[in-house]
Write a structure and sequence with these properties.
The chain folds into 2 domains: 6-100 and 108-247, Type I PLP-dependent aspartate aminotransferase-like (Major domain) (Aspartate Aminotransferase, domain 2); 255-374, Aspartate Aminotransferase, domain 1. It is built from 11 helices and 12 strands. It has helices spanning 6-27, 34-47, 58-68, 86-93, 112-125, 145-154, 207-216, 239-271, 298-310, 340-348, 360-375, and strands at 51-55, 75-80, 97-101, 129-136, 158-162, 170-171, 174-175, 182-186, 200-204, 284-285, 291-294, 349-352. It is globular and about 65 Å long. The mean pLDDT is 97. The chain binds pyridoxal-5'-phosphate (PLP). Residues 57-59, 83-84, 86-87, 136, 162, 164-165, 186, 188, 198, 200 line the site of pyridoxal-5'-phosphate (PLP).
Length: 376
């Protein structure tokens, strides 16, 4: 059984992906081909924002956004403690200080009350200037923007939405990657919308930031590539990846997003009485980058994972430790609030196989092992 069955997806889409990729080769248009700009237009329209700027990966997308805002030394940027490393890494890479905020057990997303406390503490200390909040649409569900946006506004902060896992989700029809002043996503192969290598994108309604990011992603270009007006980076989505994404995006819109939601709902129904299943808030839609359950404690989680493995079923621990426990942040003064929800969850969380092509019989096998194990 595959954790996320990209082979199956390729089998289904191969008669469209192969000619799309071959076309790039026959046209020999590997960098900045027409597929890239076509994809950018289609993604911007889907998300409902003015600009989509593709780039080399979701990590660069975050860095480009922070660069555009000139975030650096002396700035505090609030980041959930429970996320992939890149959400906080990029803040520190720009020389700013990530301040970690606790999450909510039900949704795994940023706790608005914890955010409020962290902002107040940084302000009271007066050592750093609060500049931005990075929200993460973790495991596919948008963060609780109904509660977070007013806090961001009240404190005059910028909102960077890390939608690496959240593309396709929505809140009452307003799509993920449209909530931040700038939002980013990743097209890493296993993401809800993934390519066949690395890829990423940035979304914004702001013309000035969009122009700046377009320049920064190609060596700080001015009039053309050989007119360089600022220090930038080389971060482009290549044409082959754009061609793959064009095909996959059609499948994503047509049935994959709906089908992965059906699989997740079936897990909810079959597992709800045995383990803590993830909560999707009313009016929210998840694109299900992960289906993560919570077990009673570490011993039970490790036992379930071992039993699944014995039966040839893959599972993953996202994430084994909070950001504040990462050695890379040991020297930084990052902890201002209680992070105990994250700490507890890291020992209990387990992500199960999930993808739009998952069969009911595979799902039944997963459910059966879990039920037998937690009952014991
Ligand atoms: C929440 C989050 N942010 C950022 C990233 C970085 O994306 P990429 O791997 O494309 O650089 C990822 C991807 O793994 C992620 O899950």
């Amino acid at each position: 059984m595959q954790f996320r069955d990209l082979k199956k997806q390729y089998e289904v889409l191969r008669n469209r992906i192969d000619p799309a990729v071959t076309r790039v080769m026959t046209d020999s248009n590997y960098i900045s081909g027409r597929q890239v700009s076509e994809l950018e237009e289609a993604l911007a329209e889907y998300v409902g924002v003015k600009h989509c700027i593709t780039c080399a990966n979701g990590t660069d997308a975050l860095s480009l956004a922070l660069e555009a805002w000139n975030i650096g030394p002396g700035d505090a940027v609030f980041v959930p403690d429970f996320t992939f490393f890149a959400s906080g890494e990029t803040v520190a890479f720009e020389g700013a200080t990530p301040i970690f905020v606790d999450i909510l057990e039900d949704t795994f997303n940023m706790n608005p009350e914890s955010l409020k406390k962290a902002i107040a503490t940084v302000k009271a200390e007066g050592k750093l200037t609060p500049k931005a909040v990075v929200t993460v649409d973790l495991f596919g569900q948008p963060a609780d923007y109904d509660k977070i946006l007013p806090i961001v506004k009240e404190n005059n902060l910028l909102l960077l939405e890390d939608g690496a896992q959240g593309f396709g989700g929505d809140i009452r029809g307003k799509r993920a990657c449209s909530f931040g002043d700038i939002a980013t996503t990743s097209f890493f192969p296993a993401k809800p919308l993934g390519c066949y290598g690395d890829g990423g994108a940035i979304f914004t309604n702001n013309d000035e930031w969009a122009a700046l990011i377009k320049s920064l992603r190609i060596h700080g270009k001015g009039e053309d590539k050989y007119d360089n007006v600022r220090i930038g980076m080389n971060s482009r989505l290549d044409t082959i990846q754009a061609a793959v994404l064009q095909v996959k995006f059609e499948a994503f819109k047509k049935y994959e997003l709906a089908d992965v939601n059906k699989v997740a709902k079936r897990y909810d129904e079959l597992l709800g009485d045995f383990v803590k299943t993830p909560t999707v808030l009313t009016g929210f839609l998840s694109s299900w980058a992960q289906y993560s359950i919570l077990l009673k404690d570490k011993a039970e989680r490790d036992l379930v994972q071992a039993r699944l493995k014995e039966e040839g079923i893959p599972s993953m621990i996202y994430y084994p430790k909070g950001m504040h426990s990462q050695k890379a942040f040991a020297e930084l003064d990052c902890v201002k609030v209680d992070l105990s929800v994250t700490e507890g969850i890291c020992d209990r969380v387990l992500a199960l196989p999930l993808h739009p092509y998952m069969t009911e019989s595979d799902q039944d096998k997963v459910v059966d092992v879990i039920k037998r194990t937690v009952k014991m």
